[in-house]
Design a protein that fits this description.
P5C_Rdtase_cat_N, 7 helices, NAD(P)-binding domain-containing protein, single chain, globular, NAD(P)-bd_dom_sf, 36% helix, oxidoreductase, 10 strands, alpha/beta, 214 residues
């Protein structure tokens, strides 16, 4: 059994797996179809990994699909009741790529809330305001990354917070799962800044930081 299952082999999967290795966690890494991609990433990062493809049984108690929203919904449906009792970390920002001017979920809901309808897992929103490249190191400009976390299940939120803390990140619990609506809008704003070529200082290497009063 693994501590964490990460689905995907792209930039966010790399960043999250890097933090899992830093936290001393065992990781099951599942590629979409090509197991060799999971094996190559695991070999590069070191640590304790098992590899496979989507469709293999999920070992981790925490499941982090590092994939787009529509793909995440499909994975949740495919695994069905086998996800019961697991913590599903939704990192998605459901951007409407047809307009790049908003989110592709109805007003008054979020990707996380829609995913909770599709799975018996305990959905927690987290890591959607952090970029993959910044997760590799866990900091930007010497500042520890904040991980904004929303969820309805106290134990699930605690598990994700502990993972973030063990990975040398700063967990910030922002409230129930409905707060994912604000987190996804915030994540979208961060994406817009980084996609703006006239703002070279925000090219996918920046981070949001909440500074407490001293």
């Amino acid at each position: 059994m693994s501590d964490i299952t990460i689905i995907g082999t792209g930039n966010m999967a790399r960043g999250l797996a890097s933090r899992a290795v830093a936290a001393g966690k065992s990781v099951q890494l599942l590629a979409h179809e090509d197991k060799a991609k999971a094996e190559a990433l695991a070999s590069e990062l070191g640590g304790t990994f098992t590899t496979g493809v989507v469709g293999d049984p999920i070992d981790g108690s925490i499941v982090i699909p590092a994939i787009y929203f529509d793909a995440a919904k499909k994975v949740a449906t495919e695994y069905g009741d086998s996800l019961a009792g697991k913590v599903w970390v939704d990192i998605t920002n459901p951007v409407d790529f047809s307009t790049f001017d908003g989110l592709a979920v109805p007003a008054g809901t979020s990707a996380a809330e829609e995913l909770q309808k599709a799975t018996p897992a305990k959905v927690v929103k987290a890591f959607n305001t952090t970029f993959g490249g910044t997760l590799v190191s866990g900091s930007v400009s010497g500042q520890q990354l904040d991980v904004l976390i929303a969820g309805d299940d106290e134990n699930a939120v605690k598990a994700v917070s502990e993972f973030a803390s063990d990975a040398s990140l700063n967990p910030v619990q922002v409230g129930p799962l409905r707060r994912a609506q604000q987190l996804e809008q915030t994540g979208f704003l961060n994406i817009l800044l980084s996609a703006n070529d006239s703002l070279p200082e925000y090219q996918w290497n920046s981070a949001l930081k909440f500074l407490p009063a001293v």
